[in-house]
Write a structure and sequence with these properties.
Blueprint lengths: L16 H25 L9 H14 L9 H31 L2 H15 L3 H12 L4 H29 L1 H11 L2 H12 L1 H22 L8 H10 L3 H29 L3
Helix pairs in contact: 2-11, 3-6, 3-9, 3-10, 4-6, 5-6, 6-9, 7-8, 9-10, 9-11, 10-11
Length: 271
Amino acid sequence: MDMRKPLESTIGKDLPTAHAAVVWLCVVAGLLALWEWASRELLIHSLLSRPSLVLRDFVHLVLYGTNVPIKGALWEHFLASTRRVYVGIAVGALIGFPLACFAMTIPILRSGLRLILPAAATTPRAALVYLFVVFFGIYELPKYAVGIWTAFLFQLMFVYQHTERLLTTQREILNAAEEFTGSRWCVIRYVLGPLLLPAFFDAVFLANASLWALLVVTEEVNARQGMGAIFAYAYETVQISMMISSMILLSICGMITGWAIDRIKRKVIWW
């Protein structure tokens, strides 16, 4: 009698949390060791700061903030950047999601989006910063305008893609809802809107990641506070270790806010 257990596929399975943490720490430690060795032994310290110097500047930024000309504690810079990111996301998403849902119920608008969205998606959003500066001036409005446009565009893209999948798999549900209610508004409110909530949060999540990456460009223009302004100042003064520290801080900010969005999504879309 064959007592061997059947083999189980490991594809798609995750490591236990403790094992994943150990692997992550080993990878990070290995990369830091390689970085330290390369910066010392390969004589490229002028191009690549050592991890010890980066850690020094990172701790200094966290504990003491920044000095002239970019003044302020780290939490002040974080709040300034967070305000610019999330005001833009909130306005763009709250405008874009209802308009996108409404456009999906009208065939001619949906066909128009099929032609426009590929071109709009490939537009360099970093270049739009300077265009918005021409339109709105050099103060705060261009920084918010980039966030609003990015969030609005992502809402259109994700709602359109998700609606195309719904029309393929659940067209009968949408047709039945329209026949029973007889109102486009009721279909959007009770059927299409809830079905498209995953697309809404996916668009917000991607807009969050994109805007934290764009902060370096948006806060380069006449900004005296913000995480991107710290990076721009370090770039202008060629402080490589400070540049790397500010990049790490930007990544941490994006990870924290992305985690918060994911938790909100799990609470709202509980099904």
